[in-house]
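Lab notebook, design round three. We kept the backbone fixed and only want residue identities now. Task for the bench partner: fill in a sequence for the structure below.
Input C-alpha cells:
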C-alpha cells in the first residue's frame, strides 16, 4: 500500500472526527477572507470616514487571526491525543516516526488546502453580505458591489500557510518526542485519583470563591475613588482582572472537585449509575480540565462583555442623541426665522419650544457627597446656564418648584459615577448684590438644552420669579450671550431628510453667531439630533459589526474546543459503556448521568462566564450608553442559545457512542 493510499484511507476512517474541525477551519478562512476583502470594497471604503472603517476591519482581522491560531493549535493537540493509539499502531507494525510524520503532514495539508479553497470561495460570496450588513448597521444607503480582491487572497493564503507550517511543526515535534508506550497510555481516563482532600486543597477552593467575590465587589465600586490616590482606578482594574481569573482557576481546580467529593461522601458509597457517570468523571478529570475551562470561561466572558458594551452603545444611539440634542433642530437668539418660514411655506407641521436663558456663575461645592478624586480637575464654581420653570414645563409639564428651589438637568451618567452629587443641598448664585442660595430639589441626566451650549455639563431650572430677578441683574446681563434657545420638533419624522436640507441652507449648517459687548464674536455650531444619532452609529455601528463577528468566532472556538474534548472523553469511556450495557443498563439510563455531566461541562463555564461579563458590563456600562437591561438580555440570550447548540451536539455524540457500545 502506498503512502497516498494510506493517507486517503486514514482520512476516510477519521472523517467523523474531523468534520467539525474541518467546518471550523472553513468558517475561520471564510470570516478572515471576508474581513480582509471588506477593506478593499469601494462601497465600504467610500462611505463616511472610510479610512476609520478600513482600519477597524484591519484591526479585527488581527484579533480574528489570534482566535484562529489559538483554536487550531489547541484542536490539533486534542486530535493528536485522540489518535495516539492509531499512531502507536503504525509504529508497532514497523513504520518509522518519519513515515508517520509524513502521513500526518499529508493529511493536514490536504485538509487545510481543501478548507482554504472552500473558505475563500464562501468568503467571496459572503463578503457582499457582510458589507450589506455593515452598511445597514451604519444606515448608509449605498449599492454594494461584489468584488474579488487579489490582495485579500494573497494575505489569506500567506496567513493560513504560515499557520499550517506551525501546525505541521507542532505535529512532527509531538511524534518525535513521545515514546511508543506513552502513545498507548495517552488516553488514560483518570487524570488524578481523588481519595481525600488536604487542608491546602480545601483552602485553595475557598480562596477561589473569595477571589471571585472580591472581583465582583470591586467591580461594583470601580468608580468610588480615593481622593488621596491618583492611581486607585488602575489598581482596582488590575485587582479585578487578577482576582477574577485566578479565582476562576481555583474554582475549577479545587472548589468543584471538593464540593463533588463532599456530595459523594454524603452518599456513603450508595452511588447511582447517574452519579457514577457524572460525578466521578468530572472529579477525576478536573486537574487537566481546570486550565482549559478557565481559558474558555475567560475568553467567553471577555467576548460577551465587549459585545454587550458595543451593543449598549449602538442600542442607545437614539437616547444619547435625545439627551445631547433634546430637539430635532435647535436655533439660537431668534436667528432661525428663515428656517421657520421655510417650514411654514412647505406646510410642514412642527412644534416650537422657546427657552429663555441666563448665564450665571454658580458654586456647586455643597452638592458633592465625597471629595473630588485626586487627578481629576473639576471646578466647583463656574458659569452655568439657567432657565425658568414655565419654559421647562413646556417639555416637563409635571415639574414643580417652590420659591428658593432649583432643579439641575444634564448631569450625565458618566459623571454621576465618578463625581457623586446629592440633591436637597444648596448651590450659590453669584449676583451683583452678592450670593443667593438655591436649594436643589432634584438632579437628573435629561436636559432641555443642546450640549454645545452647556459644554456637555449641567443647567439649572429656577422659578419664574427667581429668573426675572436674575434677568434684571446688571452683571448677569453683561455675561449672558445666548439669551434664547428655539427648539423645533417635527410632527412627522419621515420628513427629517427633507427638513435637514432646509435647516442647512437657512442656518449656514447650523452655525450661529453673536457679538459681545466688547466687540468679540461668539459662535456655536448646533448639530441636529439626527446628525448626532448618525455620527454615533458611524462610531459604534462599526464596533458592533466587528465585535458581533468576532464574538461569533470566539463562540465557535470555545464551543468547538469543548465539543472536541467531549468527543475524546466519550471515546475513552466507550469500554465502560460497553460493560454497563452488558450488565443490563439501557441507553436512557446511561444518558441520564451523561446529561448531568454535560450540564456541568457546558453549563458551569457558561454561567461563570455570564456572571463575569455581567459584573464587567455593570461596572462601566454608563460610559457607553444610556440603556443597560435590554441590550444585556438580548446579547446574553443569543449567546446562550448559540452556545447550547454545542451542548446538544455533544449529547448527540455521547448517545451515538452509548448505542454503539453494545
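Proposed sequence:
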Amino acid at each position: 500500500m502506498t503512502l497516498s493510499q494510506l493517507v486517503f484511507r486514514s482520512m476516510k476512517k477519521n472523517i467523523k472526527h474531523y468534520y467539525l474541525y474541518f467546518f471550523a477551519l472553513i468558517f475561520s478562512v471564510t470570516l478572515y477572507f471576508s474581513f480582509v476583502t471588506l477593506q478593499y470594497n469601494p462601497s465600504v471604503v467610500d462611505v463616511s470616514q472610510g479610512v476609520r472603517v478600513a482600519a477597524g476591519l484591519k484591526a479585527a482581522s488581527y484579533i480574528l487571526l489570534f482566535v484562529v491560531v489559538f483554536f487550531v493549535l489547541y484542536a490539533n493537540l486534542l486530535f493528536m491525543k485522540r489518535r495516539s493509539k492509531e499512531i502507536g499502531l503504525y509504529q508497532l507494525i514497523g513504520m518509522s516516526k518519519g513515515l508517520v510524520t509524513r502521513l500526518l503532514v499529508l493529511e493536514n495539508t490536504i485538509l487545510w488546502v481543501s478548507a482554504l479553497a472552500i473558505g475563500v470561495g464562501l468568503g467571496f460570496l459572503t463578503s457582499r453580505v457582510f458589507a450589506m450588513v455593515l452598511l445597514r448597521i451604519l444606515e448608509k444607503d449605498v449599492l454594494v458591489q461584489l468584488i474579488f480582491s487579489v490582495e485579500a487572497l494573497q494575505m489569506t493564503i500567506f496567513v493560513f500557510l504560515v499557520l499550517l507550517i506551525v501546525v505541521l511543526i507542532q505535529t512532527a515535534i509531538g511524534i518525535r518526542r513521545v515514546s511508543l508506550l506513552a502513545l498507548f497510555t495517552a488516553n488514560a481516563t483518570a487524570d488524578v485519583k481523588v481519595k481525600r482532600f488536604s487542608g491546602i486543597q480545601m483552602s485553595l477552593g475557598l480562596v477561589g470563591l473569595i477571589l471571585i467575590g472580591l472581583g465582583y465587589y470591586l467591580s461594583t465600586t470601580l468608580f468610588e475613588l480615593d481622593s488621596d490616590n491618583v492611581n486607585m482606578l488602575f489598581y482596582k482594574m488590575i485587582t479585578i482582572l487578577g482576582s477574577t481569573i485566578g479565582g476562576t482557576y481555583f474554582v475549577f481546580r479545587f472548589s468543584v472537585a471538593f464540593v463533588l467529593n463532599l456530595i459523594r461522601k454524603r452518599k456513603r458509597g450508595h452511588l447511582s449509575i447517574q452519579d457514577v457517570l457524572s460525578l466521578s468523571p468530572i472529579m477525576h478529570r478536573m486537574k487537566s480540565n481546570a486550565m482549559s475551562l478557565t481559558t474558555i470561561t475567560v475568553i467567553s466572558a471577555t467576548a460577551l462583555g465587549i459585545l454587550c458594551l458595543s451593543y449598549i452603545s449602538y442600542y442607545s444611539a437614539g437616547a444619547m442623541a435625545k439627551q445631547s440634542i433634546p430637539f430635532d433642530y435647535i436655533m439660537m437668539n431668534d436667528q432661525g426665522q428663515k428656517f421657520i418660514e421655510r417650514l411654514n411655506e412647505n406646510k410642514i407641521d412642527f412644534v416650537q419650544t422657546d427657552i429663555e436663558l441666563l448665564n450665571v456663575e454658580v458654586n456647586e461645592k455643597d452638592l458633592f457627597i465625597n471629595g473630588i478624586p485626586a487627578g481629576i480637575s473639576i471646578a466647583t464654581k463656574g458659569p452655568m446656564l439657567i432657565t425658568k420653570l414655565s419654559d421647562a414645563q413646556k417639555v416637563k409639564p409635571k415639574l414643580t418648584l417652590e420659591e428658593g428651589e432649583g432643579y439641575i438637568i444634564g448631569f450625565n451618567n458618566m459623571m454621576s459615577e465618578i463625581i457623586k452629587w446629592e440633591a436637597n443641598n444648596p448651590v450659590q448664585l453669584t449676583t451683583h448684590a452678592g450670593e443667593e442660595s438655591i436649594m436643589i430639589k432634584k438632579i437628573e441626566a435629561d436636559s432641555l438644552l443642546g450640549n454645545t451650549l452647556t459644554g456637555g455639563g449641567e443647567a439649572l431650572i429656577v422659578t419664574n420669579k427667581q429668573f426675572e430677578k436674575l434677568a434684571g441683574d446688571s452683571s448677569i446681563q453683561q455675561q449672558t450671550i445666548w439669551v434664547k434657545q428655539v427648539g423645533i420638533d417635527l410632527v412627522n419624522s419621515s420628513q427629517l431628510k427633507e427638513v435637514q436640507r432646509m435647516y442647512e441652507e437657512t442656518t449656514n449648517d447650523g452655525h450661529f453667531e453673536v457679538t459681545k459687548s466688547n466687540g468679540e464674536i461668539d459662535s456655536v455650531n448646533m448639530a441636529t439630533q439626527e446628525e448626532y444619532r448618525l455620527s454615533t452609529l458611524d462610531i459604534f455601528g462599526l464596533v458592533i459589526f466587528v465585535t458581533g463577528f468576532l464574538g461569533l468566532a470566539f463562540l465557535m472556538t470555545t464551543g468547538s474546543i469543548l465539543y472536541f474534548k467531549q468527543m475524546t472523553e466519550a471515546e475513552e469511556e466507550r469500554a465502560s459503556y460497553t460493560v454497563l450495557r452488558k450488565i443490563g443498563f439501557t441507553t436512557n439510563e446511561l444518558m441520564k448521568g451523561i446529561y448531568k455531566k454535560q450540564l456541568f461541562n457546558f453549563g458551569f463555564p457558561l454561567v461563570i462566564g455570564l456572571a463575569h461579563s455581567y459584573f464587567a458590563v455593570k461596572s462601566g456600562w454608563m460610559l457607553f450608553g444610556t440603556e443597560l437591561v435590554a441590550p444585556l438580555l438580548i446579547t446574553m440570550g443569543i449567546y446562550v442559545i448559540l452556545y447550547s447548540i454545542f451542548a446538544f451536539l455533544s449529547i448527540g455524540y455521547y448517545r451515538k457512542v452509548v448505542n454503539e457500545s453494545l
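Keep this in mind before ordering anything: The longest strand covers residues 434-443.
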